[in-house]
Amino acid sequence: MSVSPETLSDGRAEIEFQDASLDIWDKKYRLKSKSGDVVDETIDDTYKRVARALADAEQGTDNRERWYREFLWALRRGVIPAGRITSNAGAQAYKPATSTINCTVSGTIGDSMHDILGKVHEAGLTLKAGCGIGYEFSTLRPKGAYVSGAGAYTSGPLSFMDIYDKMCFTVSSAGGRRGAQMATFDISHPDVMDFIRAKREDGVLRQFNCSLLITDDFVNAVRDEADWPLVFPVLETEADEVDLTDPKQVVWRDWPVQSGYVTDDEGLVACKIYKTVPAKRLWNMIMSSTYDFAEPGFILVDRINEQNNNWFVENIRATNPCVTADTRLHTQYGLVRAGDLYRSGEALEVTVDRRALGESARGCEQRSAVPVFMTSDDADVYRVTTEDGYEIEATEWHDFYTERGKLPLKELRDDDRLLVQSGKGQFGTQGSAELGVLLGLIAGDGQITHRGNDQIAAVINF
């Protein structure tokens, strides 16, 4: 259905804007020039600016005009885009360095001064463009840990969070928006109690929303009234300071960063146990702080990864699944190499096994997927081969569905049974049933041969 020009103004219930709404629009979203002169005379002018900017992404004048009408119709009837779109879309002539993206996530902050300060620089530019940004700070070593390069003891992640906090307060975010930051922190980090109590001190981390990364293991420990170990990875240079085989000193677990830390053959990182606390005591501390100060929040990180709609392209907080560029995927275009899909940038309809969606029945269905993107142009690649002869090449973090559940390649065992696609894939719109039969005959009972003079023939034996 396309919206006619007449319906853009007819049939709308006229509801007066409240004074507060007009004030927010004027201060946060109304486009003005450098000298303060008004560009958007009315809210409807803002709608038109946004609708025009969104429609200009389309190909062809007629298509752009059609979608301009569609977007304007929707905006006038209550559709509210994200704030950065309302503020910055179509405003390039007045603020060309701004973004229409509301929320971003920082790359993993490495445990070094170089990376900590480098991410501050990136965050400052991100905030300046009007975006909010989130970070995980539990990748930084705990307070009191020795830093051999400096010959001193670190002040811990919360002190470095204060640098980000002050930077956010200082940088003027585009469009009059106060800088927005999100800090996450692993529930097993040795400084987790300081993180929970941080907002109790007046003026501390006021430019942050703070949330804990809560795992299933922690929830189970609370239910069982068990002890909970607070841990941090062991550096390779510290390997001789702990007994890596003693479960009272070390636990092995997934970690966002592996470089420089002690790891095993399965890619798990050795984490030193700094201390152990009753899980229920930690839970009660969280509940008390949340009741008194409305923070920290909860991020059920295991649940998020299990229910993530983009499970086929990402593993939140950890890494992105990745196959090699020559891996063929079942799409609406047929079996196409991942590298070709990446170069095309096309949105995809992919074939998904129902068992990967949590169902018990076999078979496949089609699901919308984001375009293929490159996770790394220089990563170690491994070949997985089954007893039946199936092969796939992938990075160590690519997920496989097995009878033990979903596992990254690095955690696969020789005795694992992989779930192979149990239903029909997609073969595109080219070709025909007759061609399919012919190709099947050639593959099963024929051969391809050279006749000479650059002539190739297919021979079928009946």
Give the topology, please.
Blueprint lengths: L18 H11 L13 H13 L5 H16 L6 H6 L14 E3 L7 H16 L3 E5 L9 E2 L4 E2 L3 H14 L10 E6 L5 H6 L10 E7 L1 H8 L3 E7 L16 E4 L15 E10 H15 L3 E4 H7 L20 E4 L2 E4 H7 L3 E6 L10 E6 L12 E4 L5 E4 L4 E4 L2 E4 L24 H13 E7 L2 E6 L2
Parallel strand pairs: 1-2, 2-5, 5-6, 6-10
Antiparallel strand pairs: 3-4, 7-9, 8-9, 11-12, 13-14, 15-16, 17-18, 19-20
Characterise this structure.
The model has no long low-confidence stretch (mean pLDDT 84). The two termini are 54 Å apart. The protein has 4 domains: 5-88, no CATH class; 103-307, Anaerobic Ribonucleotide-triphosphate Reductase Large Chain; 328-411, Hedgehog/Intein (Hint) domain (Endonuclease - Pi-scei, Chain A, domain 1); 431-462, no CATH class. The chain is α/β, with parallel strands linked by helices. Strands 1-2-5-6-10 form a 5-stranded parallel sheet. The chain has a 3-stranded antiparallel sheet with strand order 7-9-8. Helix 2 (43-55) runs antiparallel to helix 3 and helix 5 (113-128) runs parallel beside helix 6. The protein is 29% helix and 21% strand.
